[in-house]
Amino acid sequence: MTKTIVTAAAVGLWLAVAPPANADDGNNFNLLLETRQGENAHGTSALQAYRLQLDGIVEWNPQWKLKSSLVASNENQLDVGTYHEQPVHELLLNYSGQACTVNAGMQQVVWGQADRLRVLDVINPMNLRESYFGSWEHKRLPLAMVNTECGIGDNALQLLLIPQTRFNEDPSPAGRFWTPGIAGLLANKGIPVQSTSLPSEGRPADWNTGIQWSGRLRNIDYTLNAYHGWQPEKQLAPIPGPIPQFQSQAARYTLWGGSLTAPVGPLVARAEATRASHVTVYGTNALGLPAPADATQNTGLLALDYQAEPWFFNVQYFAQDTSADLSPGISGRQRMLTFGIRRSFLQDRGKVSLYSAYDIEHPASYLSLETSYDLNQNLQASLTLENFDGSELSFGRFRREKRAFVGLKYSLK
C-alpha cells in the first residue's frame, strides 16, 4: 500500500498547488484530473488509473449549444497492457425549443433509477472490465444518437434514434475479472470462432430505437418504455458443417417496461419492470456444445428510499427470470437484495457511502465503503474498500477480490 499512497500523494501535491479557476471569468469549460491507485488483499497492485477530462459548452444563443466532454485516460493492472477510454465521452449539438429539446451526437441516456442494477437502463452498453467493482460513473459507453424530448402538457415524450452500435467491453482471458463463459468453453475445446459482419451506421435497418412516455398521475410519477436494438453481448452460433466451428454475430431483442415512483409517508417507493423477448440463452446440443436459443426475460425491482439530512437510506430487491437456462449449469433465475447508506458531514465537505449487495440465488456478497473529503473547492480525496465473497457465478463476470484504493480528483471550477 506504500507505493499507492506515495503515488497518490505526489499527484495530490501537484493538484493542490495548481491555480484555481475564477468562477466569474465567463469561460464555459472545466478541467477534471483524477487518479485511482489500488492494491488487493495480497499487497499487489490492483489498479493504476489516471484520467483527464475536458468539458466545454459553446452557446450561440439560448436555443443552440455545443456540448463536449473529451477524455484522455491511462489504466493498468486490470488487464494485460494499458487501457485507454474512447476519447469522446460526450460531443453533441443541443437545441432547446419551446416544446422540444434535441440532443444529437455522442451521449449517454439513463432510463430508470436503480442503483448499480440494470432494469430499464439498457440504452448504453457497459464497460465490464471491473465487473461490479469500481465507479459506475464511467461504466456506460457513449453512443452516437438523436435524443428528442417533447413536453405534452404535464407529460413528456422521448424518442431515441441510435445509428451507432457498440457492445459491452469485457475483460480479456488474462484480465482480473475474466470468467470463461461460453467463449471460454469453446476455446478450451479448441473450437474456432469466426467474426461476422456487424451492424452498420450506414444501414438505417441496423439502427436501434427507443421511446419513453413519462407523466404524473396524482402523486405518482410513471414512465412507459420500449426499446428495440442489439443485445449488448454478441451471440455465438454454430456454423453448419462436419467440423465444429462457431461464429460471433449481433442479435436483436425487444424490451417493454415501465417505472413508478411515489411518496409513502416519509419514504419514496420505486418500482421498475421489463419484459424482453428474443434474449439469447444457451442450452446444449447432441454433441455437448453450446446451442443458442431465444428466450423471454422478465426483470423487476422494488425499492424504498428514505432521506433525512444528512442521512440517506436505500433498499432494493431485484428479481430476474429467464424462460430457459442461461448456460449449462447456470440457472436463469436471479434474486438480489441491496442496501445503501450515505451521510454527509462538515457542511457537505465530507461524505461516507456504504453499499452492500447480496445474491440470494447464488450465495454471495459484495460490500463497498467509500469516504471522500473536499480538501478545498477544487481538490477531493477519497478512500474506497471493496470486497466480494461467495459463488463466482454471482454478479456476472466476477472473481473473489478484496481491494482498497485511494483517489484524488481535481476540478478547475
Write down the domain tally.
1
Highest CATH level, the class? Mainly Beta
How can the largest sheet be summarized? 18 strands, antiparallel, barrel
Please name the CATH architecture: Beta Barrel
Which stretches of 5+ consecutive residues score pLDDT under 50?
Answer: 2-27
> Average pLDDT, to the nearest integer?
87
How helix-rich are the residues, as a percent range? under 10%
Number of DSSP helices? Answer: 2
Give the structural class.
mainly beta
**What is the count of β-strands?**
21
Strand content: over 45%
Terminal residue distance: 31 Å
Keywords: Signal
Protein name: Porin domain-containing protein
Organism: Chromobacterium sphagni
Signal peptide: 1-23
